[in-house]
Amino acid sequence: LSLKFGDIGNLQGLAIRFLLTTNYYQLSVQNWFSLHRLQLLYNHSIQATFNATRIYAPASYSYHCEHVSSLQRYDALLVPSSANDLSKLWEVTFIDFQIQGFNIQEGHFAYAKDCASFFSPAILMGLVMSLILLLVLAYALHMLIHLKSLDRHYECKASPAYFGQIKDNDIGDEKEPLRSGGNESYELRNQQFCKIYI
């Protein structure tokens, strides 16, 4: 597949050539196409060649990717074929790249297989955080299940230090007169306090 741009400035006959291959895979029981190599041509000769990696799709589909580039910040799907040629001097980036080499109908792209990975760094980080939260929740449930209820035992004992509130109508029952030396004094008989054991 060749994209010809013609003469641009000092570049005569600028063209970008995509070398596509198709193979049949028994595991998926269908043909798949892959972008094998990308070549930059100008001045009527090949100036740079890049090997393509991970650019493939079923033959009845198209391939789509937000960035297909030779730069590392875009995952470098295009790799210079040799360190000795001029490919390392070029930086190639396609934005909103979509390609289909076979089974094209009515001049439109078929359903696209996207290059987004199922396990991108963001997805992996989300899975790790979910695992941590599940572990914290499991630990909290474990602690709640094994939490012992507090048993309260009440024990009431008599004590001379505690004096309950005495009502006026119960004064006759609660006190007993003591006579000594002409003075009248009283002794409380039903003094009680409660101890709570937890």
From TrEMBL:
Pfam families: Ac45-VOA1_TM, VAS1_LD. InterPro entries: Ac45_acc_su, VAS1/VOA1_TM, VAS1_LD. One of its GO terms (molecular function) is ATPase activator activity. Residues 1-102 form the V-type proton ATPase subunit S1 luminal domain. The chain crosses the membrane at residues 118-141. It is a single-pass membrane protein. Keywords: Membrane, Transmembrane, Transmembrane helix. GO terms for cellular component: bounding membrane of organelle; cytoplasmic vesicle membrane; endomembrane system; proton-transporting V-type ATPase complex. It is found in: Membrane. Residues 117-154 form the V-type proton ATPase subunit S1/VOA1 transmembrane domain. GO terms for biological process: regulation of cellular pH. Belongs to the vacuolar ATPase subunit S1 family. This is VAS1L protein. It comes from Eubucco bourcierii (red-headed barbet). The gene is Atp6ap1l.
